[in-house]
Amino acid sequence: MAYGWFINQLGFYWDDWQIVFLKRTYGFEGLNHLLSVGGRPFYIWPYSLTMSLLGEKPLHWHLFGLVARWLAVVAMWWALRQLWPKRPGVATWAAALFAVYPIFYLQPLAIIMSQDFLLYALFFVSFGSMLAAQRRPQHQRQFTALALFTAGLHIFTKEYYLGLELLRPLALWLLFSEQNGAWRARLAKTARTYAPYLAIVLAFTIWRLFILEAPQEQNPIVFFDGLRSNFWGTWLEALQITARNFIFVIFEVWSRAVTPGSLELDSAFSLFSWALIPLGALLAYWFMSQFGDEAGSAGWQARAMAFGAAGMLLGLIPTLLIGRDPLSGLFADRFNLPTLFGAAVFMLGMVSWLVTERRRQMLVLAVLLGLAMAILVRRTNDFRWAWDEQRDFYWQLVWRAPSIEPGSAILGDGALTVFVDGFTPAAAISLLYPKDAGQTPRQLNIMYLDIHDFEGAEADFLAGMPLLIEGTSLSFSGDSRKALFVYNEEPGQCLWLLSPHDADNHLLPAAFRSLLPAANLALVGERGDAQHPPLDIFGPEPERGWCFYYQKAELARQAGDWQRVLSLWGTAQAAGLGPNSSLELMPFIEAYAKQGHWQEAFELSRDMYRRNQASRTQLCSNWERILGETYPSQARETAAAELVEIVRCDLASALD
User: Fold this and answer.
1) Alpha helices in 595-633, H assignment, sequence order
2) What value does the mean pLDDT take over residues 224-240?
3) Fewer C-beta within 10 Å: the chain N or C terminus?
4) Alpha carbons 58 and 501: distance in angstroms, whole number
5) How many Cβ atoms are within 10 Å of 653's Cβ, its own excluded?
6) Which residues, including other chains, have CB under 8 Å from residue 543's CB and lie 6 or more apart?
7) How far is 42 from 44, CA to CA, in rounded Å?
8) What pLDDT is recorded for position 100?
9) At what angle do helices 88-100 and 339-354 cross, to 10 degrees?
10) Mean pLDDT, range 546-556, rounded to an integer
11) For 242-260, how does the pLDDT look when each residue is reduced to its tens digit (9 = 90+)?
12) How crowded is the C-beta side of 80, counted as CA atoms within 13 Å?
């Protein structure tokens, strides 16, 4: 209900692309290098296991992502059953909240997050086994061994859930509080039971801080440096992040389901997402009504809220140590993943405390689940559209540029899409084109850069400047003289691979126009590799609409194959296809002119101008260039005169 609606329409995003590129190009050795240099040398084992089975097809990963999350939910339910064995309804409601609590939206990052949920499941297996060892003395050794093994496994693999390890003594104290005896005896028993788990935490801490040498620390611990330079300020900042996150997680997040901007009466998806709130609530209410016990009773609520609040606070410790804020940044909500456990338990306890009657409790909790489903479906829909945008970009790029010389840089206007930035688009684009066997290991074929990064350095860029980019495990070595420029920011526009002749395009930001003299279309080859792009990753070729014919026409234009350009125009016209942007008529205008069909060139130019009078400057500059490249004729002079009359171009110098 929350994650599965668009599962076959999702792809790869963000760092998933680096994982796929390294595995596809260098195997597990390349992937292990990425994980090891960042300080997680044991993180390779879940990737080795899962990628060997699943390959690199997006659908496989999104299905497995749901399986991994389900495993974590079931393991969490089992762990709470060990903590509160007489309250199965508590464990079930908490697990339901944990499954869809809308503070974590990155489920579509299927490769990375499936590993994290597997580790989450290991934490819960360890947590539950520790409690089961106390409840089942006859199997204490077996459960304790399992608990210690899975604790060490998840901690040394990735430190995400390290803070939750500090929740163990509170859980043990709650368990031992069921037994009669002095508080000192319970405290001593708690300490003895927790000691081996604390030893694992301390061993990891010593290893991570003082023994492990990470060549490129991805998440340096800055908290202690902050204490030395600004003791109270650092503590105040940590307290503020924690308090703000608590308010967001417990109160604000639910309002995201009923924001006015999400209601669009002419959108079927918008109406569906709103209808999901009562539908999800009704289904949740019906399902939970099958359980006979109440969610909570007097005295239990306070313990649950204290336990949940502690889980939320302790879950944030690794995030606070590296100076991050789970509410700041596009992918920052991944730092709230460890707080999901505490948030679910706290919310359950708070609702049980505020609403004492069982059916009303169930109604409130069911409504919360309905709200969560609506929020998550909308967020998943954002990823669905982002994948559509990505695939559209990749396929149009391949149509326009069947091959690109290795070492080329592609410059675009900001991030490729909303969920693709940094090395991500470069890894994806490099997968489109075969890698040169002699290229430096872990070096990207193609680099994608934000053109705005070069504002103020235009002269150096045009003169030729090195482009050296170093990442955690990937690098790029190029030169600004091997640059391509892409633009596809306008609604309905095809991807434009720009040339110096596009400098007068009024739609381009100033950053493009100042650097376009460096555009080097000679980097583009007409023939590609039959094995690329890999269809298991990028999916089948989309239906060949207008943009296919436009891209192929631009490729033929680059080669000077004017007959091919006109053939593509005829095929597109016969299929009833035409551009949304009149600027995309330019290759066909030039082809008509170069083939001596001056009247047709004029008529297309007139149509282009009438559809978009702001295109006048670019239209005139291209005509001036075309006239300078063609021989005089009566038809040419007549067409030029008509253009001057209608568009008011100054073509006198070109006609002399």
Assistant:
1) 598-611, 616-628
2) 90
3) C
4) 39
5) 9
6) none
7) 5
8) 93
9) 120
10) 96
11) 999 999 999 999 988 888 8
12) 26
pLDDT range class, residue 411, cuts 50, 70, 90: very high
Listed in sequence order, the DSSP H helices in 261-321 are: 268-288, 300-315, 317-321
Q: How far is CA 610 from the centre of its chain?
A: 41
Q: How far, CA to CA in Å, does 222 sit from each of 177, 229, 319, 576?
A: 38, 11, 10, 60
As given in the structure block, the two tokens for residue 625 are 């260039």
Query: Are 483 and 520 a contacting pair, CB within 8 Å?
Result: yes
Classify residue 597 as left (phi > 0), alpha (psi -120 to 50) or beta. Answer: beta
Q: Looking at this protein, which amino acid is placed at residue 561?
A: D
Give, in order, the Cα–Cα distances in Å from 581 to each of 100, 359, 485, 497: 42, 58, 18, 15
User: Given pLDDT bands bounded at 50, 70 and 90, which one contains residue 439?
Assistant: low
- What is the mean predicted confidence (pLDDT) over 390-414? 92
The one-letter code for the residue type at 366 is: A
Give the SS3 label for residue 493: coil
**Closest by CA position to 165, among listed 134, 192, 130, 141:** 130
Q: Which residues of 152-182 are buried (b: 16+ CB within 10 A; e: fewer)?
A: bbbbbbbbbbbbbbbbbbbbbbbbbeeeeee
Residue 14 CB neighbours (<10 A): 21
H or E segment and range at residue 71: helix 58-83
CB 316 within 8 A of CB 326: yes
pTM of the predicted structure, to 2 decimals: 0.89
Average model confidence (pLDDT) across the chain: 88
**Side chain identity, residue 58:** P
For residue 444 the two structure tokens come to: 């990207």
Q: Which one, of 473, 385, 517, lies nearest residue 13 by Cα?
A: 385
Measured from the Cβ of residue 405, the count of other Cβ atoms closer than 10 Å reads 17
Which helix (DSSP H) or strand (DSSP E) does residue 465 occupy? none
- How far apart, in whole angstroms, are the C-alpha atoms of residue 484 and residue 497? 7
The whole-number pLDDT of residue 205 equals 92
Which residue did the predictor score with more confidence, 506 or 577? 577
